[in-house]
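Lab notebook: predicted structure, single chain.

Context: the supervisor wants predicted structures on file for every construct in the current expression panel, including those that have not yet been purified. This is the next one on the list. No modifications to the sequence; it matches the entry in the shared construct table.
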Amino acid sequence: MPSFTSTQVTLGQRVYTQSCQGCHGNKLQGGRAPALVGEKFLAKWADGKRPVADVHDYTAKNMPRNKPGSLTTSQALNVTAFVLSKNGYKAGKRSLTATTLKVPLSAPATETP
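Prediction complete. Output recorded below exactly as produced.
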């Protein structure tokens, strides 16, 4: 499972609001750009074979659409953490870093009542 902190999620939400929300929607539901939450997102990115780096690298190199590659390294890491958190992954004590991006991304564990 990916490792990121709640601080990264908070900072990533700020980046998302400023740079991503206009196209991906205020709830990551999509609009002018694809949804960043839900089954389609998880099917594409969380098949257990692709590393978290794939999501991060795509974001870092291609987003925002009107200024591709303009996010700083920490902004790209933080917005990745935010998107992961909105897909059911839980924040922990270890930060998302270049090293932890290498972890394969599997669908988040679901809690059973």
